Amino acid sequence: MAAFEQVVEAKGHLIDSGIMSLILDRIIEGHCTFKIERFTVGRTNEEESTTLIRIQSQNQEVLEQLLDVLVPLGCYLTQEEDARAEVAPGDAQVPDDFYSSTNHVTFVRRDGEWLPVRDQRMDAVIRLGADGACCIKLRDVRRGDQVVCGHAGIKVVPEFKDRERKEFSFMASDISSERRVFVAVRQLGELFRQTRADGGRIVAVCGPVVVHTGGVDGLCRMIRGGYVQAFLGGNAVAVHDIEHALYHTSLGVHLDTGIPAHEGHRNHMRAINFVNHYGGIVKAVEAGALRSGIMYELVKHRVPFCLAGSIRDDGPLPDTISDMIAAQGRYTELLRDADLVVILGTMLHGIGAGNMIPSSVRTICIDINPAVVTKLSDRGSSQTVGIVTDVGMFLHLLKDQL
Amino acid sequence: MAAFEQVVEAKGHLIDSGIMSLILDRIIEGHCTFKIERFTVGRTNEEESTTLIRIQSQNQEVLEQLLDVLVPLGCYLTQEEDARAEVAPGDAQVPDDFYSSTNHVTFVRRDGEWLPVRDQRMDAVIRLGADGACCIKLRDVRRGDQVVCGHAGIKVVPEFKDRERKEFSFMASDISSERRVFVAVRQLGELFRQTRADGGRIVAVCGPVVVHTGGVDGLCRMIRGGYVQAFLGGNAVAVHDIEHALYHTSLGVHLDTGIPAHEGHRNHMRAINFVNHYGGIVKAVEAGALRSGIMYELVKHRVPFCLAGSIRDDGPLPDTISDMIAAQGRYTELLRDADLVVILGTMLHGIGAGNMIPSSVRTICIDINPAVVTKLSDRGSSQTVGIVTDVGMFLHLLKDQL
Amino acid sequence: MAAFEQVVEAKGHLIDSGIMSLILDRIIEGHCTFKIERFTVGRTNEEESTTLIRIQSQNQEVLEQLLDVLVPLGCYLTQEEDARAEVAPGDAQVPDDFYSSTNHVTFVRRDGEWLPVRDQRMDAVIRLGADGACCIKLRDVRRGDQVVCGHAGIKVVPEFKDRERKEFSFMASDISSERRVFVAVRQLGELFRQTRADGGRIVAVCGPVVVHTGGVDGLCRMIRGGYVQAFLGGNAVAVHDIEHALYHTSLGVHLDTGIPAHEGHRNHMRAINFVNHYGGIVKAVEAGALRSGIMYELVKHRVPFCLAGSIRDDGPLPDTISDMIAAQGRYTELLRDADLVVILGTMLHGIGAGNMIPSSVRTICIDINPAVVTKLSDRGSSQTVGIVTDVGMFLHLLKDQL
Amino acid sequence: MAAFEQVVEAKGHLIDSGIMSLILDRIIEGHCTFKIERFTVGRTNEEESTTLIRIQSQNQEVLEQLLDVLVPLGCYLTQEEDARAEVAPGDAQVPDDFYSSTNHVTFVRRDGEWLPVRDQRMDAVIRLGADGACCIKLRDVRRGDQVVCGHAGIKVVPEFKDRERKEFSFMASDISSERRVFVAVRQLGELFRQTRADGGRIVAVCGPVVVHTGGVDGLCRMIRGGYVQAFLGGNAVAVHDIEHALYHTSLGVHLDTGIPAHEGHRNHMRAINFVNHYGGIVKAVEAGALRSGIMYELVKHRVPFCLAGSIRDDGPLPDTISDMIAAQGRYTELLRDADLVVILGTMLHGIGAGNMIPSSVRTICIDINPAVVTKLSDRGSSQTVGIVTDVGMFLHLLKDQL
Questions:
Q1: Does D177 sit within 8 Å of C368, measured CB to CB?
Q2: Is A226 left (phi over 0), alpha (psi -120 to 50) or beta?
Q3: Which residues of chain A, if any, have pLDDT below 70?
Q4: Phi, psi (deg, nearest 5) at residue A322
Q5: In chain A, what residues touch D69 (CB-CB under 8 Å)?
Q6: Is residue C44 less than 8 Å (CB to CB) from chain A?
Q7: Cα(A318)–Cα(A325) distance, rounded to whole angstroms?
Q8: B165 interface with D at CB cutoff 8 Å
Q9: A 245-304 near B (Cβ less than 8 A)
Q10: Measured between alpha carbons, how far is D398 from D350 in angstroms, rounded to an integer?
C-alpha cells in the first residue's frame, strides 16, 4: 500500500484542452498511482470541468517531484494553506525547493487570499512583497527577499486551447509545410487589423532572413501601416537591412537582379562603417543619409527597437546592445503588454522573446525550417503557432492584406 | 617508379567549368600521379582549352578504375583506337567491363569514325548496331548485342556551366533558401516564354505537395497558357487534385478555409471511387463530371500525362500505370526532346525523370526541402538548378508572369 | 435551435489517451455543438471511462460529415441498429457514402451481433459476406459485394496510448533528435528479445541508407540472430547491398576507407549485371557467388523478402517486383501477423508498409530526418514511434544488444 | 572596345583548388571580359601554377567592384605598387574604400616590401603601424590609424584544398548524412592524436546538444585525455551539463532511463541557483560540490573555457560573460594559435568561432542538421569539414579511439 499521498484539484477546460490527459500521463510516468475522486464534466463547450485526484506513492520524494510537474499543469493542493515563503540567503540565491514559474497566469495564496502574480514569465521565481506577488529573474533576487517555495498555495491557470479554436483554426493545426499558406496570410492580416482595432500592441521579432528573402518591402508596409509597436532583433538584421538600403545587396547578393557579388562581405562592413560615421542609426536617418528600409521606417515612425548583440556579430552597430543583461532588460520592456508577437525567421531571438512573455500573448512564428517552430514550442512557448513557409514570400503576400 | 601509365586528352571549358580541377582531384584520390604534358588555355570566355595528361600508377587495376572515373569527365585515351565492342552473353547481361554511360553527350569510335550516341541517359550501356550507337537500359540488352566495353574510343562531353551563366545567373548559384525568390520567379517566367517562343518542350514533374500548398491555380494557368507539353507524376498528385476539384479538400484539409477535416482520408478514397465509376480520368472529364483542376486542364488541353504507381498508392486510379517497366517506358517517351524539365515538390518522380534525360536538358527543381535538390544533384543530374521555397506560393507568383 | 442531432457513445481510456479531447475538438471544428449527457470516469489507470454525447447541428449534411470523423475516433451511434450494407454497383466501385476504414480494431453489427472485422487496415472498405466482415482494398471490390455504408452499426477501438507507457516510455515521447539515443538502443534490443521470446514476428523495412551509413553488419547480425522474420524494401537496398558485398563500395564510395570513387555508379550497374548473370539473388547465393551482406543472410536464413520496384529504379534486379499491385500484395502477405515493424531509413516503403498494418502493430521508425517520422504519423500510422538518429550508428550499437 | 582594364596575377594550386575556375566565374558574373595572357600549369601535384589575366570593362566602377571580389581569391595587381594606407577619420571609422579582410593568409606591400598580416581573420580592416600589418576589428580602429584601402599592394593566399586530400580525404567530400560515419570517427581520432603529438592546440566549441544526446562521457574522456586545450560555448551547455551532473536530467529528461520529467525546467534553474550559491563553477568544483561532468573536468584539468552569453539565457551563471565585446575578446584569445577547432552541435558559437580564425585552422563541424554545416561554409569558413550525424553517438564511438 502506498504510504504517501496528496489530493489535488484542477478546474477549467480540462478535457478539450488535453490538460486532464496530460495530468494522468504525468502521474503514471512519475511512478505514482491515482484515484479520480471526483470529475464533474462541463456539459457544453462553455462550461468548465473540475476534478479531484488522489495521488499515491511509496516515497515522499517521488511524490514531491511529481508535484513539481503537476502544479504547472494547473493542479493545486486541496488543503487550504498559504504559499510558503522563504528568505533568500543571498543575492541571486534562493532555497533549493523554490517554485520555478511557468508562463501561465498564476495565483499565490497569502493570508488566505489568492494574489495574482505580476510580470508572469517562465523560469522565474515568485517574490512576495508589500506590493503583492511578482515574477523576478533569479539574478534579480536580493538577500532577504521572500521567495515562494514548495507546492502549497500556488494555482496555475494553463492557457487553454479554447481560444484559438474560435478564430484561428487554421494556424492551430499541426506544424506543416504542406498546408495552404494563403489561408494563413489572410488570417494573419485579419488578426493584425483586429489587434490594432482593439488598441493592441504587435511586436515583431526578426532575423536577417527577412532581408535575404526579399521581405523588406512587406515589413516596411507593416511598419508604415502601424502594425508594429516594437521591433526586436539582433545586430545582423539591422546591418543587412542598411546594407540593402545603401547598396542593394544583402550578404553580397544583389537582391534585385539576383546576381551574386561573391565573397562580397565588404558591403556589410561598409554599412557598419557608414553607421559608425553618423554615430548611430537614428542619427543616420536624421541626417538624411539613410532613406529606406526597415530601420529607416522604424525611426521615421518612432517605433522603439532593440538590437541584441551576439557572439557572432560583426561590428556591432552603435545601436546594438552588447550586454545581454541590458538587452534582456530592454526586450522585456518592449514586450510588456504585447498582445501579438510575430517571430520572422529567427530561432535565437524568437526563443529569447518567448522566454519573456506570458502564454496569454498570441505568438506566431514564420520560418522555412520546421525545426525552429518545434523548438520554440518544446521550450515552453506552447502557445506558439507555426507557419512553415518562405518568409520573404509570406511578407510579400501579407502586404496586400494590410 | 610507376610501371603503368596512360595518356589522356580533354578539351572544352576545362577551367571555368571546374572540370580540370575535378580531373586532378580524381587522379589524386585514385592513388595515381599525373604530369600535365600540355595545357593550352582558352584566352577568352569563348575559346576552349585543351590538355594532355600522363597518368601513372603502380598497378594496372588501379589505373583501370581511375579511367572508369575519368572517361565520364571528358578524358579520352590518346591512342587512336576504336571502341571495343563485346557480345552480350545473354538477355540483360553484358561483360563485366562494360562501359556504363553518363548523361552527357557521348561519341564512340567505330572504324575510325566518331559516332554520336543516341538516347543519351545515365547508367545505360551503349549498343553498337547497324544504326550506329545508342544508349539502352541493361534490361533491354538482348543476347548477341554488341556492347561497348573498356575505355578506348569513348569521348564524353560534360555539360559545361558556361550556358547558365549568361542568362540564368541567379539560379546557378548555390542551393539556398536565403535568396530572393522573386528574382527566380521572374527568371523562370522569362525562361518559359522563351522556351515556348523557340518551339521548345516543357515537362512538369509534380508531387501532391503542389495541391496541398495551393499551387493548383498556378499550375492550371501554366497548362492553359501552353507552358506544359507533358505532365509526369504519380497516383497521389492526381488523386489529391481530383479530391480538391470535387470536395475542396486535400488530404482532408479544406484548402479554402484551412479548416482541417481530421481523419478525413475518406474524401481521397471517394475521389478514387468517383474516377473508377467513370472508368478513368479522361472519361470523367468527357462526361462533364470532373470540371476543374490540374487533371481536368491536362485532358482539356490534350497534354499527355503519365501517372506512375508506387508501393504506397491507394487505389490506384485506372490511369495510374502500376507496372514500373511500363511506367519508365512512358516517362521516357514523354521526356524525349524535352528542353526544360520543372520538378515541383517530388523527390521520387524527380529522380526518376532525372535518370532518363541527358544533361543538356535544363532542369529546375522547386522544393521547400533543401535535401531534395541536393539529392537530385548528387545522383548525377548535376545540371539541376534548385530553388528552395514554398511550392504553392512560388506557383502563385509565377502565375502573374505568364 | 439545432434541428438535427445524434447521440454517440464512446468507451475506453478516453482521458489518458487524449481521445475525449480529440472528440470534443472535432465537434467544435465541425461547427456543431455538444452536450455531455454522461461521463463516467475510470477512477484508476486500469478502469475505463464511458461517455454519452449529444451532438447538435443546424444541418444534416454537416452532422453526417462530423460522424465521418467521429466514428474513426471510437464513437458509435447509440441507436441499436445494424450496419447498413449496400451492393457494389461494379468492380472497384462502391456507393459514395461507403465507410472508409481506419487501421484500428473495428466491429460491425449484423443481425444484432457485433462481428470483428478481419484484415484491418486503413483506407479500405468493409465487405460483409458469409464469412463475416473483412477489409478489402477498393480495387478488389467485385460487383455485387455487400459493402458497409454510413455510420450506423460500426464500432472502432482506437489504439490507446496505455500500452506504450508501461514498457516503452522513452520512445513514446516526442520526435526529437535531442534525446539520448542510447536508451532507445537498449529498449529496442529488449523489445526484440521479448518479441521473439513470445514467438512474435519482426518485419524490417529498409532503405539503401542502411548500406550507405554502414548499417550492414548490424542488420546482418539481426538476421543471423533470428530477429528478422520478413524483409521489405525496394530495388535500391538490394543493389547497394550487393554492390557493397562484391566491391566494398556503395554508390561509388568505398565504405571502409571512405575514399569516394566519384562518378562511380558503374559498380552499382555491375552488381545488377552480376545478379542478372545468375538469374536472381537466390541463385547467386546458391552458386556461391554472393557470399556476404544483407541479401546473402536473408537467403541463407530463409527469411522471406520482397523488393518493390519504383519509377527511379536502375535495373531492376530480377527479384524486384515491378508491378505495384503484385508488390503490394506480397508486402501485405509478409506483414500479416507482424508484431513489430522496424522502418530503417526509408519514407517510401515505410509509408507503404504503414498503410497495410493495423494500429496494434508496434512500429518503430529510425531516420536521421525528423520529417520522415512526422510524415508517417500524419498519414495515419499514429502508433509509430520515431527515433531521429544516424541509422548506421544505431544498428552498430544495437548489435551489442542482441 | 573596353576602355578600362587591369592586369592581375595569381599563383598556387590554381587548377586543383578550383580557384582558377572561381576567378573566371567571377569575371563573367561581374560583367567584365578577360584574356588569359599567360598560364603556366603545375605539371605535377606538387608544382604550382601561375597565371596573368587581363580584365576589361566598359566602366571603372564595375572594374573596381570586380577587384573587390578577385583580390580575396588571390589575384594581385601586377603593377609594382605599395598598398595605399589612409588615415582613420574617427574611432571605429575608416574610409569607404577600406580593404575588408578574408580569413586567408595575406601580405601587404609597404616600401616595396611584402609584410605578412598578423591576427588574420575575416571581416577585419588591416592596420599598418610601426609593428607591421595586422587585422583589427572595425570597432578597435582609433582615429589616426593607418588603414589599408583599395586593391593595390595586397596579396591573399587562399587556402588550397591540397592538404585535405592527403590525409583527410573522407571528410573533404560532400556534406552528407549518407556516408559511413565510422571512417570519420577513426580519422578524427587519428587527427586528435597527431595534433597532440605535434604539440598542437585543439579547441572544442560545444552546444547543449552534446549533453542532451548523451555525449558527456565522450567529451569528458577527450578532456581527461588531454585532447581539449580550450573550451568555448554558451551559458546553456554549462547549465545543462551541471544539471545533468547534479540531477541526472537534461532539460528535464532523465538521460539514463529516458523517462521525461515533463515541464521540468526546474532542475535547470536549480543548477543555476546551485552555482550561484558557490559563486561560480570553479568554486563549486573546489568546494567538492560539483564532482562530474564536462565543466568539472575542465576545471580539474585546468582547461581554460569561455561561456558567452546570449539573449535567450536563463541565469546566467556567474561564469558566463554577458558582454559580447568581452566574450568575443576572450574567444579570440582562446582561439589564438589553435590548430584544430571542433564544433559540436552549435551553429551560433560555431559561426562566432569561425569568424575569428584564419582559414589555415582545420575546422570540423559535427551536427545532425546539414544546414548548420552549409551555413558555416557559406559564411566564409570554407575550410570547415562537416559530418552530419548524431553528436552524442559520435562522441560515444570516438571515446574508443582515444
A1: yes
A2: left
A3: 1-2, 159-180, 250-264, 379
A4: -80, -25
A5: 261-264
A6: yes
A7: 17
A8: yes
A9: 251, 253, 255-260
A10: 20
Give how far the C-alpha of residue A380 lies from the chain's centroid of Cα atoms, to the nearest Å.
9
Q: In the Cβ-directed half-sphere of D56, how many Cα atoms lie within 13 Å?
A: 12
CB-based contact B187 A259, cutoff 8 Å = no
Q: Give the chain D residue nearest C174 (alpha carbons).
A: D260
- Cβ contact C165–A25 (<8 Å): yes
- pLDDT per residue as tens digits for the range D35-84: 888 888 877 777 888 999 999 998 888 898 889 889 988 999 988 799 99
Count of CA atoms in the C-beta half-sphere (13 A) of C312: 21
A93, A96, A98, A99: CA torsion to nearest 10: 130
| CA–CA dist D378, D392 (Å, integer) | 25
Sign of the dihedral through C-alpha B170, B171, B175, B177: positive
pLDDT above 70 for C39: yes
Tell me which chain D residue has its CA closest to the CA of residue A269.
D123
CB contact under 8 A, B174 and D25: no
Q: Please report the ipTM that was assigned to this predicted complex.
A: 0.90
Q: How many CB pairs lie under 8 A apart between chains A and B?
A: 112
Q: Which three cell numbers stand for residue D274?
A: 546551485
Question: Which residue did the predictor score with more confidence, D59 or B289?
Answer: B289
CA distances from B157 to A228, B111, B153 (A): 56, 21, 13
Contacts of B169 in chain D (CB under 8 A): 29
C-alpha D287/C-alpha A373 separation (Å) is 41
Mutate to test the interface with B, among D5, D14, D21, D38 (most CBs of B within 10 A): D21
* Max Cα-Cα span within chain D: 79
CB-CB under 8 Å, C352 with B312: yes
Chain C partners within 8 Å of B268 (Cβ) = 123
C332 — contact with chain A (CB < 8 Å)?
A: no
Q: What is the model's pTM? A: 0.90
Q: Which residue has the cell 587581363?
A: D54
Distance from CA of D124 to the nearest CA of A (A): 8
B: neighbours with 3+ CB pairs under 8 Å?
Answer: A, C, D
Contact: D181, C213; criterion CB under 8 Å? yes
Which residue is associated with the grid cell 462533364?
A: B288
Instruction: Pick the residue of B7, B32, B43 with the most D CBs within 10 A to test the interface with D by mutation.
Output: B43
> Which chains does chain D touch, 3 or more C-beta pairs < 8 A?
A, B, C
The answer to whether the Cβ–Cβ distance between B176 and D25 falls below 8 Å is no
Q: How many CB atoms lie within 10 A of CB D91?
A: 13
Answer yes or no: are the C-beta atoms of A188 and B155 closer than 8 Å.
Answer: no
What is the SS3 assignment for B70?
helix
**Contact at 8 Å (CB) between C390 and D177?**
yes
- CA–CA dist A306, B51 (Å, integer): 58
pLDDT, one tens digit per residue, over C301-341 is: 999 999 999 999 999 999 999 999 999 999 999 999 999 99
Pairing of strands C146-149, C125-129: antiparallel
Candidates D24, D164, D174, D373, partner chain B, best to mutate (most B CBs within 10 A): D24
Q: What is the pLDDT of residue C254?
A: 58
Query: In this structure, what DSSP letter does residue B389 have?
Result: S
